[in-house]
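Lab manual, section 2.4: Encoding a predicted structure.

Procedure: take the sequence of the chain (461 residues), apply the prediction step described in section 2.3, and record the output as structure tokens. A sample record is shown.
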Amino acid sequence: MARMPWRPCPWPRSGSVSTNMAWAGLSPEEKRSERFKRWLSPPAVKFSSPQAGKLYKDRVTRFAKALQLQKPDRVPCILPAGLYAATYAGTNLHTVMYDYDEMKRAWLKLLHDFEADTYIPPALVPSGRALEAVDYKLYKWPGHGLSTNTLSYQAVEAEWMKPDEYDALINDPSDFWLRTYMPRVFGALKAFGQLPPLTSFEEIATMSFLSFGLPEVQAGFQALLEAGRETLRWAAVVGEVSQVALQAGYPGIMGGLAKAPFDTLGDTLRGTQGIMMDMFQRPDKLHAAMDRIAPLAIAGAINGVNAANVPVIFMPLHKGADTFMSRKQYETFYWPSFKKVVMALVNEGILPILFAEGSYNDRLDIIKELPRGAVAWYFDKTDIFRAKEVLGNTACIVGNVPTSLLMTGTPREVKEHCRKLIEVCGKGGGYILAAGANIDEGSPDNLRAMMEAVKEYGVYR
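Recorded output:
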């Protein structure tokens, strides 16, 4: 029997006007409460046993209380597995990107071998076949620009949007994406630059069809169809793994991904060097572009959370760290549009986990402005003990066992470091133990040491 792609039921459901109006009339806190209730009792899930159902509720309750600055039964833990399942299962990233059955085997092995608090499915393992179908240029991955033994994939820094193209992006983002950005980033879609604007289809639109008859344009659409077919096969397996984990009592903790508008421009369009220069050479265009992107980011994030039925969204913050820009630049260029996105999600009852990559030591008093109990701050290299002092009464703190320690330390060293984090950051609740970043390889005993630490030192009396 062919696998069918897993489609989580979106929520809140699009229903009658009265239902939507009732939802709109709720306060952010009431919306969050409703979303957390839905997370605690997911619809149409048949747990593998009564014990699995109980464990699921215990785990969700543990995270929900910590995220909302309460004391759960004990400190919850997010294991930094990332792409680690491939290495742990004796395979590699290249294999699982192309062999979905191997991907399933590796991630289920990790699931069954670790008694964790949550489970992260292989959703961040892209389909190598789909990427190849469209000749994707924004990333290199094992077997495609990198050695097949490489443990991760790499972003390719470039000016995928030229500095004089801000107006085209601002005026019509969809048109810019279709006819300018995609032909550059997807080699198979190069001919899409010859397409007419879709707004040219008015009344008798015969002439507007001409470009669609070009062989190179049709080849581009065929590449998209192939990528779509391959992605459906990939998504079916990812969904299968997710369902097994859910039925076994392991909740998902990430309802989707979102980005700060500055990072969307810097990562996806202008590149790091380009956007850093734009802060000096074309600040007004940069601000206008971020204002244009913000509502698109908000809508996409809300749709993702509704589909996943998990009220938490993960936001990796790439270019807001102390080492990327000054405090004044952060307040001027990064914070306003980022805060706009975060507050829109908070107002919809969604709780963002804000992953402050690098260090945010010079940002703590700024980020304290967000509403109490509405977000969680996940710290990488920030002084987390100082972060607890500044933010402990405002936001849940997540982090930050050093990745280097997990990669090269002993289980005893890892457990001792976790103990210190738990004793300081876990005081009074509102803390989740996690690593500074995910690992791709390392000793499984170090991950087990993290779980041992929260069970031994993280119990609230």
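Check your result against the sample. The first strand starts at residue 139 and ends at 142.
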